[in-house]
Design a protein that fits this description.
Shape of chain B: globular
CATH class of the largest domain in chain B: Alpha Beta
Pfam families (chain B): APH
InterPro entries (chain A): TF_Znf
Helix content of chain A: 10-25%
Strand content of chain B: 5-15%
Oligomer: heterodimer
Number of strands of chain A: 3
InterPro entries (chain B): Aminoglycoside_PTrfase, Kinase-like_dom_sf
Helix content of chain B: 40-55%
Radius of gyration of chain B: 20 Å
Strand order of the largest sheet of chain A: 1-2-3
Keywords (chain B): Transferase
Number of strands of chain B: 9
Structural class of chain A: alpha+beta
Protein name (chain A): Zf-TFIIB domain containing protein
Number of domains of chain B: 2
Strand order of the largest sheet of chain B: 1-2-3-5-4
CATH topology of the largest domain in chain B: Aminoglycoside 3'-phosphotransferase, Chain: A, domain 2
Largest sheet of chain A: 3 strands, antiparallel
Largest sheet of chain B: 5 strands, antiparallel
Chain lengths: 99, 322
């Protein structure tokens, strides 16, 4: 069959016993009636917890509060402090040593 | 310089010099004296191996005596005072201490985060054998907010409302308007990197033998407060996660009681870290208003964190009522 989006050829694959069609061009996926439900059912039957995905950083970011900095805190860290070797913001350098 | 510096500084130098040279009989010496700090709340002068500190005007002598005694009982955590009674110089209480080399302010990357975490854990595990006044962390935060209100009354600023609203949303205990909750621990009350010095007997090259200094806010209270300033810096995106993790891990490995041994520490840290963020933002804004300058990006990050706090309910844990 042809992909309805880019009109390239679609190939059939078997995923956990469910036949799915994937476009050779845009990599889009076509599911027949009931196939999405079949995949969802398979997912819910997956009782063994998966190993956690490998952390994108050298170490996982520690937890941070919900009000934390969106680009700092636990998310990407050290926006102003910088990782080792970066020059620390002068104002924060002073803050580290004052009440 | 403070107004009475012309009298106070030489008097402190004389006190420190007499303690440094007890056999000198007041004879002149060649050591010279160095002013380590001269702020409205503290003036500190060093002579040879002795430091004389004039405490803030209005310091309660009885409370200071209890704090000095407490420090003297944990010499492996707090630098012990040379004497546990304060002298009076003019109208100021003065205490004498051994000199310990501080963290280099020009090299905060060398900060001993592991030592800071381990020292706090040991402090918090110390049994409180005698009477102790409350740890003054919340009082200090309230004072900073009070000074900000005064500054804003003459000069409104768009950063004022988010800081004051974040403060108003804190539970009463964190605003020093109610007793602190939970099982009390011996707390430092004002931890920052300037509160760490090497023990005078330590090898200058050795990586250890750090002690905490400054007993002015020491007392009984919520131990999470002592972790909350680094926690606030981290939450605001100022302290890199690696340094925060080193500090927190060292605290946990030393069996610090303020946070659970594993898992998310934020249910416990949330309220104190909010309070420290507000306090730091208030101090920064007050200084910026006094200088007539805009906030820099670090100061703005603190104000932004205050603004984000307001719609988010603080995390509650057992024993921490609102």
């Amino acid at each position: 069959m042809k992909c309805p989006k880019c009109h390239a050829e679609m190939h059939t694959y078997n995923r956990n016993g469910v036949q799915i069609e994937q476009c050779s061009g845009c990599r889009g996926i076509f599911l027949d009636y009931g196939e999405l439900e079949a995949l969802t059912r398979l997912e819910s039957q997956w009782t063994q917890p998966m190993p956690p995905p490998p952390a994108p950083q050298a170490y996982p970011a520690p937890p941070a509060p919900a009000w934390g900095a969106p680009h700092g805190g636990g998310h990407h860290g050290g926006h102003y402090g910088g990782h080792g070797g970066h020059h620390r913001h002068k104002s924060f350098g002073h803050m580290l040593f004052s009440s | 310089m403070t107004t009475d510096a012309t009298v106070l500084l030489p008097a402190l130098a004389a006190q420190a010099g007499a303690a440094a040279h007890p056999e000198g009989g007041g004879a002149p010496c060649a050591c010279g004296s160095t002013t380590l700090a001269d702020r409205p709340d503290a003036t500190v002068v060093r002579h040879a191996g002795v430091v004389a500190k004039a405490h803030a005007p209005g310091t309660d002598p009885d409370e200071l005596a209890l704090r000095l005694s407490a420090a003297a009982r944990v010499p492996d955590v707090l630098l012990p005072p040379l004497t546990t009674t304060a002298a009076t110089v003019r109208d100021r209480l003065v205490t004498l201490w051994p000199y310990g080399a501080p963290v280099d302010p020009d090299d905060p990357g060398a900060a001993p985060w592991e030592a800071a975490g381990a020292l706090l854990a040991r402090l918090h595990r110390t049994a409180m054998t005698g009477p102790l006044p409350p740890m003054r962390g919340p009082v200090r935060a309230a004072q900073a907010v009070g000074r900000l209100r005064t500054a804003l009354s003459g000069t409104p600023h768009p950063a004022g409302p988010p800081v004051l609203r974040a403060w108003a949303a804190l539970p009463a205990w964190a605003r020093a308007e109610a007793p602190m909750p939970g099982p009390p621990a011996l707390c430092h009350g004002d931890l920052h990197l300037g509160q760490l010095v090497r023990h005078p007997d330590a090898d200058a090259d050795a990586d250890g033998d750090w002690r905490l200094i400054d007993v002015d806010d020491l007392g009984s209270g919520v131990p999470a407060w002592d972790l909350a300033r680094p926690a606030a810096w981290y939450a605001c995106g100022l302290l890199p996660p690696g340094e925060w993790t080193r500090f927190l891990t060292a605290y946990r490995e030393a069996d610090g009681p303020a946070v659970p041994a594993g898992g998310d520490p934020w249910p416990v840290l949330d309220v104190p870290a909010r309070a420290l963020t507000v306090q730091t933002a208030a101090r920064a804004l007050t200084k910026a208003l006094a200088a007539g300058r805009p906030l820099d990006e670090v100061e703005q990050a603190l104000v932004d964190a205050c603004a984000r706090m307001i719609p988010i309910p603080h995390q509650l844990t057992r024993g921490f009522p609102t």
